[in-house]
Structure formats: structure tokens, C-alpha cells
Specification:
Largest sheet: 8 strands, mixed
Radius of gyration: 21 Å
Low-confidence stretches: none
Order of helices and strands: EEEHEEHEHHHHEHEHEEHHEE
Helix content: 25-40%
Distance between the termini: 35 Å
Number of helices: 10
Strand content: 15-25%
Shape: globular
Bound molecules: iron/sulfur cluster
Structural class: alpha/beta
Amino acid sequence: MTENSALLTVRNLSTHFFSREGISPAVDGVSFDIRPGEALGIAGESGCGKSVTAQSIMRIVPRNGRIVDGEIILDTGAEIVDLVKLDPTGTRIRDIRGKNVSMVFQEPMSAFSMVYTIGNQITEVIRLHQQCDQTEARIRAIDILRRVGMPNPEQSIDAYPFALSGGMRQRAMIAMALACRPSLLIADEPTTAVDVTIQAQVIELLRDLQEEFGMALMIITHDLAVISELCDRVMIMYLGKDVESAPAVELFSNPKHPYTIGLLNSVPELGHGKAQMLEAIEGSVPSLTARPSGCPFHTRCPKFIPNVCDVELPPQVEVAPDHYVRCHLYV
Ligand code: SF4
């Protein structure tokens, strides 16, 4: 793998859910790359397809969903694998999960079993992917707990998940995800379930660990402040579409898509006090089963062009180097 080649290449990914109400295209033709050591942020409101994109990569899409199109090409260092082609319950994907790609979830309780200690669970991951005995696995688990800032790792390794505070559980989950030094860590809303002081600690921890381990990060969040702290690149999603993507500095200084501009205008800035006018995006995200025709954002867009935006899906265009937008204003 050369420095510029992608670690993960997602092309035209479509993951749909099937129910009595109809088909929900939760992810619909999304493409992006993540290079080794790069941090990509994926942002958008709830229901825009961010988490389903991560679930598709991990091949843990819920039962009523299916990847219906596209490729997810992972460079494991030893081979190039299209994850879409793997059996989601097979040994190959289980080997890749944890070893090459790991995920931390919004709610750490969902990642841990309550009947085993965190040490049992972290050593199990280590022994599943690395050739070592129980004693060696325990030494490695204590080491990784220390690196994520767990106090007294020699004692806390024997704690049950429910006995830890929210912040410590979050650290333990990150430790479990990092136990086998994956080349890509996916973090789904890693700061949503913890309070503000812990949020800052988790962001700092992820930044430090990314540097120390040289791993790539994919952060899913609705919080653009988290992305501005951590990410090299940003992709904005709306109703399953990748509506804008660019290097983070470019996107924050030169946003183009009306949805991205709306998201940025709705973020309070420190120091602006009560006088600051926040502009919420009008309306709410429509149901996926009744997705608007043409541009999916047209029912809420302040720049709506009648007979164009509601008729035709805008193609993706490059508006500046490496800055892509799907909007008729730039076609
Ligand atoms: Fe708005 Fe039209 Fe652009 Fe969609 S294509 S974001 S409706 S201007």
C-alpha cells in the first residue's frame, strides 16, 4: 500500500431496508475514500444514512436491510478485499472486524456483555486475532487500558461494565476496539451519550490515539464541532446521498450545498452570546419511504429552483479541487 492509495474505497454504495411500508434507501449511491492515517467525518441529521454507512462497512446491517449495490474495498495490507462480497456471518469478515476495522458505538453498554468483566471481553478479542496465551493477552489488555487513560488498569480490568462510570465505559470500549491495532477505527456518535466534559476528553483521546497508532478514523456525528476538531475531510449526507464532500478546512470556509450551509448556520459559536441569530433548517428530514423527487433536499431548500430541483437529481460536480457537491446551483 502506498501512502496515497486508499485504505478503504467505497463506491456507489446502496443499502436499502425493506418493510411493509415500502423500500427505504438509507444509503443511496455513496462514494468516498479513506487513506491510511486520515480522519474522515460524516455529518448530517438523524436519518440521513450515516450509521447505516458504517454498519454496511462492518457488515452488521440489521436483518431487514441489505447492501443492494456498490463496492467496499479494503486494503488489509496482505490483500485487497471487497467486503460486500463476504458472507456477513462468515469467518472472513469476523477476522477483519477487530483486526483491520473496529467500531465504537454511541452507547458503550451495547458493546459489552454485562455478565463478563471488561478484561474477559478485551482479552477474548486479543486471543481471537493474535497468537498469544491468556497471560500475554491480559498483559496486552492492561497496556491498552492504560493507553486509553483508564485509572488503575491492573484493577479496573476485573471490573464489570455496569460498575464503571459513563466516561470509563467509553474508554473501555475504545480500548476493546483498539486491542488489535486496527488500521481503521469507526466511531459512531462517540460523544453523544456522555456529558460535555467527558466529550472533550473523548475527542482528545481519539486524536492522541490516532496519532500514536497511525490509524485512520471515520467519525459519524451530527456535531460539526467534533469534525472540526478531529477530521481532515468531511462528507455531508442527506437522505442517503453524499451531498457534499471536501477537505475539512475547505468545507468549513467555503461550504456550497444549501444543506451544508444550513447545518453550519445552526451551530452556536462561542463568544457570540444571546445576540447570535441561529438559523435552523426549516422542516424536518422526510421519511425515506417517501423521498422527494429530484433533489432530496428540495422540500426544505431556501434556494429551490422550481421545475428543476423537484424534477432532476443533481449530478455530483467538482466545484474546487477535491471539493464535490450535488446541487443544481453548480451544474
Ligand atoms: Fe437546493 Fe436545488 Fe441545490 Fe437541491 S439542487 S440543494 S433544492 S438548490
